[in-house]
Amino acid sequence: MVVPLCPCHMRVFSSKSTTVHPSPDLKNQKIEGIAKTTKIESSVHQNPEIKNAPNADDVDVMGAMKAELQTIKDTFSLRDVPRDSLYIGIAGILPYAATSLSTIYLAWDINHTDLYGSGFLFSPETAHHLLELITPIQIGYGAIIISFLGAVHWGLEYAGFGGRHSYRRLMYGVIAPIIAWPTLLMPVETALISQFLAFNYMYFVDARATVKGWFPPWYSIYRFVLTFFVGATIVVSLIGRGQIVRPEQNHLKSLQEKAKSDREYQLADSQSEENARREVDESSEEI
Question: Over the stretch 157-213, which tens digit does the pLDDT of each residue have?
């Protein structure tokens, strides 16, 4: 006789007798996930780019350097300066560049004559003559430019740019020529150094005036770039003149060489006399 089972017995029987087997797709997904995790961890430990990645301090330093370079680039680009003012300003630098490079070449040609007995392109007399012509041109041109920088203050005061400031602005138009023109009476090196300082002083004045609103906003950057190149040409001229061999240096050198040769001759003469005396003494002892 077969006894029918109740539903509760059937549930117990089915739960005990049946086992749930995971599907093969689920196993493959787990294995692939573990493999990917292992691969990522191994790549993190083995990848030198990730291992040697720059830290935050290096990134900050690099960012600061890029910002500084961008600032320098923006400063020398002069994008806000009107084109006509920019072109005329560049043209005003050309005489300085010409006289400065000419000074360097003539100084080299004069030294070439001192070393090899003849100039490369000019004779010593011609090179000295050209140098004596170029130097007053550079100094006189510098005095004119410095005076012009002061006159700009007068023009903007008359135009009323930035308001009326009377003597506070007009005085710079007087100070500039007072500084500039006495340099024509100074020795060459002193005049060039004085004009170098005068150009920097006028730039400082113009930069402060721009902050006060007396000049357009682009004027201080414009003046900085022009002053930078003018100052560089003056320094080049000073270096070139400092390398010239002076006649008095040659004279002193010849005197030193003559004194040295005289000492050597005296030492050789005294040595020969000493040797002759010894020979006489030895011969007398033998007798």
Answer: 999 888 888 898 999 999 999 999 999 999 999 999 999 999 999 999 999 999 999
Residue 269 token pair: 């003469």
Amino acid at 70: Q
Amino acid at site 286: E
Place of tokens 């007398």: 284
Amino acid at 46: Q
- DSSP states of 126-158 as a string? HHHHHHHHHHHHHHHHHHHHHHHHHHHHHHHHH
Q: Measured between alpha carbons, how far is 287 from 265 in angstroms, rounded to an integer?
A: 33
Burial of 176 (C-beta count, 10 Å sphere; 0-12/13-18/19+): buried
Q: Which two tokens stand for residue 156?
A: 């903007």
Closest by CA position to 203, among listed 166, 167, 232, 228: 228
Angle 188-212/167-180 helices, nearest 10 degrees? 170
Alpha-carbon distance of 49 to 60, in angstroms, equals 19
185 shares a domain with 253: no
| Shared domain check, 165 and 148 | yes
**Tell me: the pLDDT tens digits for 146-159?**
999 999 999 999 99
Would residue 41 count as lying in a domain?
no
Distance CA 128, CA 124 (A): 6
DSSP run (H or E) holding 172: helix 167-180
Structural domain containing residue 266: 249-282
Tell me how far apart the alpha carbons of residues 98 and 185 are, in angstroms, rounded to a whole number: 23
